[in-house]
Amino acid sequence: MSSYRTLVGLLLLPSLALADLPHFEPEPGRHAQVQQQGERYFLQQPDGSRLALSIPEGNDAEAPSFNIEDYNFDGHPDLAIRVPVGMVNSAYHLYLYRPAQHRFERLQMPPGLTERANCSELSELQPNTEERALYSHCRSGPRWYYDAYRFDDSGTPWLYKTLQVRHDYDPDAPVFFAVFEKTLDPQGEIIASRALDDDDQPQRWTVPASRLYLHVSPDQASRSKAYLIEGDVCEVLDQQGNWLLIRYASRKGPLERWVSLDQAYAQAQP
């Protein structure tokens, strides 16, 4: 089991500031220590080498902070360097521990990965142990956005969850859901979706019509014999124009089908 305990008795090296900088064990008996020399920072590695640390660009007046946590869920603590950016955001450089080499390496995001994410760089990192996913948060305008990354067997990150915002608002649409959380597989294919409100809670929709038929796909030709009734409450999974993909908790288990908003609200008219 990896140890996070602070080491004692480490000697101060000449011209190197060590106060308030991390020194820790990424694995039992192997020491790592962040050091400062002038405006530069270094990492004394468990394998005996010394690594110059890359500090993110941010607010010039604020010094970087260093966090020790298991960011890739391999049982070993890693090193994150955080610098505030603007009023609320931050930028991170992440150094992951490689136990086979007994040293840390800076995480380099695969080309194109952050281009599909909301946050252009790692920001406000929060590891989620239950999901084994590393969440990155950034704020744009009035809303916080997030991306979540998982790591494959080689330690390479891939985009696991992200928020997608719809910009095709139709003022004539009876209802409009703007923000969806998309869950992806390692190949980048969307495998799940759900609408979220401004507090990132699942959006729900109540059937307004006395009888609303369910469809296998978002078209009239796919109508089934099953239907919902007025007052049934559904979770919103997706929206394509005036079609909603909903999940309804039926007595036989969760049911995912499409419904026509035109039909729902036409029937609801007095």
UniProtKB/TrEMBL annotation:
Keywords: Signal. It comes from Ectopseudomonas composti. It comes from the Bacteria. InterPro entries: XAC2610_dom. This is SH3 domain-containing protein. Residues 1-19 form the signal peptide.
